[in-house]
Design goal:
The chain contains 11 helices and 13 strands. The protein is of the alpha/beta class and 326 residues long.
Length: 326
């Protein structure tokens, strides 16, 4: 099958920056404590006029412009998000309307922070089969909307941003070589937003119990996430005849610097090959891999011919990896 190739990338983060010092005024924490445990120094937070589709639109427009693609050329839109504008219409529907162009298919992929890998997988399949010629994949989050700023275990991590990739068929060896997707529901209670769905619909009680915010068991998440990173990376590399030493650039989900460092240590990769921007963006969920990859591409950190490994994990638990020849 023809490989899907990333022909243009875009990224957007809100202008408002929330520093560790700002958080120290809101909750019992400090810059030193946050940096030591997460590696994060600041994160971007949407203002009251911005929603997830607004961030997605700016990232998508930049990606389309860089790819030399008009909105009417897009055949399908796939958006990974956990914090869409509303339950429905989907964020992808809203993005399609804001972009203009044709009335093409659009869908949200709901895989928490793995939404980048999941959306890339969905989009690339349509290119590989020849069904579509141009697919817009987006990861976008306004996680600040579901962050409890009285809970220092989560509020120091979560942030807002969007990233986008335009996929088209490859004429050569470059492109998405392979994608792996996984899930394990028994870990679901480790990272969860309990309220707002059919199980706990919005009531005075659910609001008072703060069930509409993200809840996380940090130590347990750390252990599972590191293992997921290593296992998915080794599996996709082995199946395609590669070893960790063949990786030129590793772009992991920017959840926490300690998780990234632990996973990289297990893979025996030098940190020079790892893209890290969690210090400036925090955990942007489904946007994080796209945002980090866009930064690596625009700064020439990723070069033509490089073997690039993308990996992410998220609540559910979901996780996955993608192998790309740049």
């Amino acid at each position: 099958m023809t490989r899907a190739r990333i022909v243009g990338m875009g990224a957007y983060a809100p202008k408002r920056i929330l520093t560790n010092h700002d958080l120290a005024k809101m909750v019992e924490t400090s810059d030193e404590w946050i940096v030591q445990r997460t590696g994060i120094r600041e994160r971007h937070v949407a203002d009251e006029t911005e929603a997830t589709s607004d961030l997605a639109l700016k990232a998508a427009q930049q990606a389309l412009d860089r790819a030399g693609v008009e909105p009417e050329d897009v055949d399908l839109i796939v958006v990974g998000t956990t914090s869409g504008d509303m339950a429905f219409p989907t964020t992808a529907n809203l993005l399609q309307q804001q972009l203009g162009g044709r009335n093409v298919g659009s869908m949200d992929v709901y895989a928490a922070c793995s939404g980048s890998i999941y959306s890339l997988s969905v989009g690339s399949q349509f290119i590989q089969t020849g069904k579509y010629h141009t697919v817009l994949c987006v990861g976008a989050e306004c996680l600040s909307r579901i962050t409890d700023y009285t809970d220092r275990g989560t509020c120091i991590l979560l942030a807002d941003a969007a990233g986008a990739a335009v996929l088209r068929p490859s004429a050569g060896e470059s492109g998405i070589i392979d994608v792996d997707l996984y899930s394990e529901g028994r870990y679901g209670d480790l990272l969860i937003q309990p309220g707002g769905g059919a199980r706990h619909p919005a009531t005075h009680d659910t609001v008072e119990r703060r069930l509409h915010y993200v809840k996380m068991k940090g130590n347990e998440v750390f252990k599972v996430a590191v293992r997921m990173f290593e296992e998915s990376a080794r599996k996709i590399l082995a199946r395609n005849g590669f070893t960790p030493g063949d990786i030129d650039v590793f772009v992991p989900h920017q959840a926490n610097l300690r998780i990234i460092e632990a996973a990289v240590k297990r893979l025996k990769l030098p940190m020079e090959r790892v893209v890290v921007n969690v210090d400036r963006y925090g955990n942007t969920g489904a946007a994080s891999v796209y945002v980090a990859l866009e930064e690596a591409a625009t700064t020439k950190r990723v070069k033509p011919g490089d073997l690039v490994l993308l990996a992410a994990f998220g609540g559910g638990f979901t996780w996955g990896a993608a192998l790309v020849r740049w």
